[in-house]
Design brief:
The complex is a heterodimer of chains A (74) and B (238).
Chain A lengths: L1 H16 L15 H5 L3 H33 L1
Chain B lengths: L11 H19 L18 H25 L2 H32 L11 H5 L2 H22 L3 H29 L21 H37 L1
The chains are: A mainly alpha (74), B mainly alpha (238).
């Protein structure tokens, strides 16, 4: 239980420190700063990760189906 | 292979592939990159566009190795391996081409960029022409292999052709584009993906894992196709 509490405490700290990540100073060359100032780049990351995970789950399903078929053939 | 209750055939490298890709997507978009004129944030395409070509190259190498193994052993299994690795390699090549087209239209053919005014300057790119030729040669491999009905003949002819196709990869995508002036990085001087003037250590930190992750994904898809085809062959034998 104590270990669980410790991990829970640590995770809350990590979660609360998240808004501080990725806050760098101003840069001379203009990059996608407007995107960043709104913090909306994270939206893009989330969308891309969703697509990636969706595709991976699909491949995993295919993999399992083929494994089943292989078992039936043996 | 040995464990009984495995739902997913030999899965540790599949998990590694997924983890590396998640790392690529997160760090590739959020970490800082060198600030270069014209490229700006599009330099992040290195983790996606360039990796497609790396993956294609590795899959084609595996394909040609399997063709040679077939010619040494005349085991039809290797013929299926070679064919499927080539197919998935082509898929990655097409993806590399498509992503390159998008990237190019916002960096080379930028209307605000007077150096690259005309479309003909872009269309004359040796790298584009070379890559197109290489892919067409591989299309011909698939057509050749699938148009022969006799199994042994098909395997033998296509294995030999695959070796020629692989040999043509080198002049078309590695040698000729580097001899000619090019807008693509790596023409006449430097390296298309690893030039230290373009990318630095921070980018390598994401780039190499990205290459491994994408390649493993390609291999994963290929193994699925191979297993399906072997099942199909078994069914035909019965």
């Amino acid at each position: 239980m104590i270990v669980g509490k410790k991990i829970f405490f640590l995770m809350t700290l990590v979660v609360f420190s998240m808004p501080v990540w990725g806050q760098n100073g101003n840069q001379p060359v203009q990059m996608a700063d407007t995107m960043r100032s709104n913090g909306r780049i994270f939206v893009v990351v989330a969308v891309m990760l969703t697509i990636l995970i969706g595709l991976v789950l699909y491949i995993v399903r295919l993999d399992r189906k083929i494994s089943k078929l292989e078992k039936e053939f043996k | 292979m040995t464990d009984e209750k495995n739902y997913m055939h030999k899965s540790w490298w599949k998990i590694a592939s997924v983890l590396l890709l998640i790392y690529t997507f997160i760090c590739g978009l959020l970490l800082d990159v060198p600030h270069l004129p014209a490229l700006q944030e599009t330099i992040r395409n290195l983790y996606f566009h360039v990796c497609m070509w790396f993956c294609m190259m590795i899959l084609f190498i595996v394909s040609v190795i399997n063709s040679i193994r077939y010619l040494r052993s005349f085991d039809l299994k290797y013929d299926i391996y070679a064919r499927q690795y080539a197919t998935v390699g082509i898929v990655f090549g097409i993806l590399g081409y498509a992503t390159g087209a998008i990237w190019m239209s916002y960096t080379w053919a930028d209307p605000n960029n007077p150096a690259f005014q005309s479309f003909s300057a872009v269309a004359r790119e040796p790298k584009l022409i070379g890559a197109a030729i290489a892919l067409l040669i591989y299309f011909a491999y698939l057509i050749l292999r699938d148009s022969i009905t006799d199994m042994d003949k098909r395997a033998r002819v296509s294995a030999v052709y695959n070796i020629f196709a692989f040999a043509m990869l080198f002049p078309t995508i590695w040698i000729v584009p580097r001899l000619l002036p090019s807008l693509h990085p790596g023409g006449q001087s430097g390296n298309p993906a690893l030039d230290t003037r373009d990318i630095d250590g921070r980018m390598r930190l994401v780039f190499y894992p990205a290459v491994i992750g994408w390649t493993l994904l390609g291999v994963w898809i290929t193994t699925l196709k191979i297993r399906l085809n072997i099942l199909k062959e078994k069914k035909m034998m019965q």
